[in-house]
Amino acid sequence: MQILSFVILFPVGILLGIWYTSMLVLPLFYGVPMAFLGFVRKKYKFKAIAAYLVAPAFWTAFFILAFFLLAYFWESGFNYLSNSAAFNLGHILGSIILILNVLFNRKTKEDMRADFEEFIVPYKI
């Protein structure tokens, strides 16, 4: 049963780690500094910075609510998930994979730059 649990929870942890990191870390550590730099250089409005903070705030609130509801309505499931080495290892590994991909993959950097330029259009001065 432990092997089956590992086989299921490890990939779920990886996917959740990639997803959460892309929704939280990338906007905070790429979008916000770029928008702030553009604001200081008078290229973008201040709203650009606030717009990049909306997604991380939303996803953080969503996950806090989801885990609170899980802990409230299904305490044993929450405890199992929070103590699961497979899930936690998968989550950490997924986050590391995404961060390394962003740091060392040229195509990913180009895609992020293009996404930033597309997102920031309404906030240009």
Automatic annotation (TrEMBL):
The keyword Transmembrane helix applies. Keywords: Membrane, Transmembrane, Transmembrane helix. The chain crosses the membrane at residues 6-37, 49-73, 85-104. This is Uncharacterized protein.
